[in-house]
């Protein structure tokens, strides 16, 4: 029996089981596929290794993360309860346990369940202090995680208390210009400023600057971490926090650029550019379009002035600016710039690269906004061709683009016949990618029926809806939203509405 189990285990490994970053396989936009993959692997390994094995525990950690991305909060909560119970299997200093507890705390934070997150991190910090001591790196990192929780919670007095105790340990345990020390001291100064203790904050920053005069490497690394934190806040739509962080990174990296030479200066310049780009996107997310445009124009002008090549980074800035201009209805300038981006990306990255197709999507939207449907159609077709070449016909991204083309045809004059053909193709792709009876495939059938109805082919629409209704009732039941929508659509057709 042990030999059989070992053979099964080896077989799963040879298949590439241990791809815990399942989103790496399917892409961040398709987390539902990653969830399906991880759930299946979890079942397989629970069967082979049992529920208490460390690899099973690790899979659950990543599955909960993916469930959060899928916004399946109840399922994620179930996994979190299992994880919380399982952490007792590991010592307080076990890396997997620490990772799981921090992911759990982050999950609780997303649910505004601050007390649960606090209890988890306080327990983790206390156990690490006992087992490893307060000056150990893992203790310091967990301690900082707790302080950050209080800051996000708005409990600045508690954050101040934790950071006040943490700073001396970090300074003694790590060298003065270590990026983590810099980050901790900076957080402490921010908290002091937030509570109007301005002089104390200035003293703390001055002390930190003095310790970092020997080398700017630690400060640069800390600013890099701050930049990542600002980007995470932007992605989570915490725009005020992101704006504050990225503005500070811009300011500090600009200072470092002036103080540095050679390779270090180039690193500082790169960080300054990235922070500017991130801040512009943050302002865009707040509908501060003119401010975003000004930042993007300034950044592009700086890159051109220092003879930055027409590479991926410069093309990204041009793309951001073109999209901002499009949203400001400056369509002529947006089109001109986006055409440059499309050509540049085709030359630098290749004509079928995903960024090149992204430029085509933006151009299609610009053409549609001007009523230039034939030019928009050419872009949509080129996008699908590129996806088929890069990924194959039966791929989730190809399906997405096929749906976009069908929707485009449905919205233009005399486009219903073309829309029907496009929906037939999209349904075929969906059947092969997601299955004949998946919700997505059946939704597409409902959309095709709407096109048939608009085209006057009412009997065909009714027949298609009857089949779709039957499948939805069989696989999803009468209470599912998609089932209700199809039944309502069918009743409208039968009643002549």
From TrEMBL:
Q: Could you tell me which InterPro entries the record lists for this protein?
A: NLR-like, TPR-like_helical_dom_sf
What the entry lists under Pfam families is as follows:
TPR_12
Q: Which residues form a coiled coil?
A: none
Output the Gene3D superfamilies linked to this UniProt entry: Tetratricopeptide repeat domain
What is the name attached to this protein's record?
MalT-like TPR region domain-containing protein
